[in-house]
Specification:
This protein has 238 residues and is an alpha+beta fold. The protein is 26% helix and 34% strand. It has two domains: 3-67 and 199-236; 72-195, no CATH class.
């Protein structure tokens, strides 16, 4: 196969992954705490030797998570929490402890605060947050202190990955930090608010159009190369 076709196919594969990322972003425009993703393109150049020019291949296996804060929407919910600034809530999942910005929680019958996916919210020490069933006047201070009628119940922790580049999207609004996490002291928590998705639908649709046009140009090139090769084979076989 011609080198130009190899190079174009790697580019097409990367554009397909970018289109999938854009489509996922658009699908989560209304998902609280969602962080939009992008694809990182890298170029690999190989010397062919002799008088031949070098061969360049594109690679788009890397992902980047946009950490810009989304707008805050007031809900008035007692267990709706939003983070203003850096940091993530820490939740306990069957796959380990994960980070999330989605702050909508619900007390279980046992009093544990659970995320919408059923994962337990953890406090600053990594223990589950409990709210007694008979608790009244539950309030959350900006430093994360959760109280009922002025009596402290728990201190909700905020965390950041130890390696800022080691944040891995594992599904929905959850991220894994395999290098570990560290507490955040500067951010504040707000009760009765939820952070909305940080996806800008207009810019994502514009990005989708750009990616689609680039993919169509690559497909047109491949079609023409296929016609050229077929023409050469037909001529040589006469």
């Amino acid at each position: 196969m011609d080198n130009a076709i190899y190079a174009t196919l790697t580019r097409q594969s990367g554009l397909m992954r970018e289109m999938q990322a854009v489509a996922n972003n658009i699908a989560n425009v209304s998902t609280n705490g969602f962080r939009k993703e992008g694809v990182i393109f890298s170029e690999h150049v190989v010397a062919l030797g002799g008088a031949e020019p070098s061969l360049s291949m594109a690679d788009a296996l890397g992902r980047v998570v946009n950490q810009a804060q989304g707008p805050l929407a007031q809900t008035g919910g007692t267990f709706d929490f939003a983070i203003e600034g850096e940091g993530f809530f820490l939740v306990d999942t069957p796959q380990g402890q994960h980070l999330t910005r989605a702050g909508s929680f619900t007390p279980s019958p046992e009093g544990e605060l659970l995320s919408l996916e059923g994962h337990r919210l953890l406090d600053a020490g990594g223990a589950p947050v409990f709210v007694p069933a008979d608790a009244r006047g539950v309030t959350l201070a900006q430093d994360g202190t959760l109280s009922a009628e002025g009596r402290p119940l728990a201190e909700i922790g905020l965390f950041m990955p130890t390696d800022p580049n080691g944040l891995v999207h594992v599904g929905g609004t959850r991220f894994a930090a395999y290098a570990g996490v560290e507490p955040v002291e500067t951010a504040v928590m707000l009760q009765g608010f939820l952070e909305e998705s940080n996806v800008d639908p207009v810019s994502e649709i514009a990005r989708m159009i750009t990616v689609q046009r680039a993919y169509e140009m690559g497909q047109t090139f491949l079609d023409r190369e296929d016609e050229r090769i077929r023409g050469v084979i037909s001529t040589l076989s006469r």
